[in-house]
Specification:
metallopeptidase activity; PmbA/TldD fold; TldD/PmbA_N
Amino acid sequence: MSHHAEHFQALVQWLRQAVAPSQRFTLSYNAEASDFIRFNHAKVRQAGQVAQATVSLKLIENGRQAELQLTLSEDLEVDRQRLTQAVQQLSQTLPLLQPDPYLQLNAAQWQTHHVDDTPLPDAAEVVEQIGTSARGLDLVGIYAAGTICRGFANSDGATGWHQANSFNFDFSLFHANGEAVKANYAGQQWQAQAFADRLAQAREQLEHLGRPLKVLPPGAYRAYLAPAALDEIIGMLGWGGFSAQAIASKNSPLQRLYAGEARLSAQVSFEERISDSLTPAFSQEGYPRKDLSLVRHGLAGERLVDSRSAAEYGLQGNGADNSEMPGALQMAAGDLPLADALQRLGTGLYISNLWYLNYSDMPAARMTGLTRFATFWVEDGHIVAPVNTMRFDDSVYSVLGDQLEALTAERELILSTSTYGERQTSSSLLPGALVKRLLLTL
């Protein structure tokens, strides 16, 4: 048992005695031990470690609830003292609050324990491989690796523990002309060959960036969206797209899909796949999570339901967090071999990344955004020239609907690179998409 798990258990046992009989509590625990290594010109410029643990304590009494976040010292005596003060503070706050009409507590005494201690890559070996294979390249990037722990417990006896190791190498290769190729390699086991392939692909794209830019007029183009580009589109959909609250209040970009008025291509299936992912099998509210089929062959399936939506709309909660965003989204693969993608594209755009996305017409699931980094013009299955930054404006019902030609058989695991406050557990597993027509407006 890790020291994090022991520390968490000790705090929980103590809290169960410390809280007044009229009160109930929930305790959410977040911890990480991470290495960060920053590269510039393919050399290590900075290396550091972060070890931190925080808890969120919620106290409930007479239909009222109040919450406090605390940073832990990981010294048991000090942390008990901090929790004692937190319990006192919350107890004084509670009577001043209004009762919460959608407060719904899970009284089930569930237990879940998941520890994936796949050995982390040896940092020295990773640095060695990156340095050797990228010699002579202007490689800039950040390598982050380590253990992430999540815990949950409440006064009813439910406990959950989740611990997993992962790494994420987020890097760019810069051309002398200032253009860049962006790439990522992430997962739980560092495979030298997989990284070498990823770097070789980026290196090949870098060479193409030296050619004169092609200026395209606005219009409709055949396009291949690499998984990282597709991730931006699907990430936007995640904001409310599958959310029970957004669907019920008619604020979901996939409103028409869930109402049965629109559909996506039969090739498109989305699943929230918690099992075997880096995401814990329980929510911070204390509900177990299970795998959900969100879209089945182009038609709406299940939705993400947190406890408040369940109470407000009379639904069955399924362990979504209060954002009701997917945490481990998988898109079904297609049958186009990745090696044949350019050949099947023929003539059109190869888009490796998109950014600055926003909705241009939310009810129509219509988005706009810019191409970023390496976007190429392809003729007869061969890259001919880099393309200047273009703006696209098109509907998901088109791109992943009637204009979707094929999805790749291989998928890429994309782990959140966000380290804002702490490393994240969210991930997506996505294919690349060949689209018959993408609308470019600028």
